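Quick log. Single chain, no ligands specified.
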Amino acid sequence: MELSASSYSVNIKALNERINAKSAFVDMLLLELSKAIVGQKHMGERLLIGLLANGHILLEGVPGLAKTLAIKSLASAIDARFSRIQFTPDLLPADVIGTMIYNPKEHTFEVRRGPIFANFVLADEINRAPAKVQSALLEAMQEKQVTIGDTTHKLAEPFLVLATQNPIEQEGTYALPEAQVDRFLLKVVIGYPEKEDERLIIRQNIEPQSKNQINAVVTAQEIVEARELVREVYMDEKIEQYIIDIVFATRYPKDYNLQKLQPYIAFGCSPRASISLAIAAKAYAFIRRRGYVIPEDIRAVCYDVLRHRIGITYEAEAENITSVNIIDEILNAVEVP
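-> predicted structure:
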């Protein structure tokens, strides 16, 4: 891809040098994650993209695929506050955000902060909590603040919700509202490990004592600084147009000669998808030590950004057509710059 004339105002070489200097922690983080997680390179990179792009992540996979372990390991590798909330049907909003506690000595009410007041919040089995809890979490995810009583409290930076859900067991679960699902930057689907990886997993877990303790290799402040640099990664106008075409193809497939998709799409992606695709691609370029975005970056993150934002019809479900199949068709049809 050729860079347009506007790129000359951006010193790509200088930006590459700054990114090379500031992104050294990426390899260290991935190395620390590999101590606990065997294989699952895709999941590890997506966790880093969420971290650098300041976006929440939803991990979906059957039990036992190390979703929770990966998130706990990431938090251990960063010198920041971590909390875990096990979502259950009887969970209350106060169990997440906190509540007002009466102090009999002072005859006043005091704020008792909940586990949401952390840098990394693991929302385990997020779809098991009722609507009131989801609405309380939604404010924290979107506004980066929590309201307890009549007082609003700002959450610390960085603040990241890393949620897990089980796709096969639906009894006692609540479907997440579309508005909340849209707040997740990425939805990462975790698959089974390869045979060789599984052999290593067995060996690692039957040792008398684990030797691979995860160390904190980066501070919260370094993450905040890296996020600012990620936003400086150069994106050409042609790449912006590529993003727009992909998103618009989910809304108006006929305009891209994709009439066959019309019966399968209930609703297309919102403008938040365009924003998420752009910032996730910039974070992916940062991880690759590049100061500019190329079309391959867009394609690399496209599935994780869009799969939960495309609504499919009953007809699509009847024919076993998923949002991933729709993204496949769109990427094949939209012209690459």
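The chain is about 45% helix and 15% strand.
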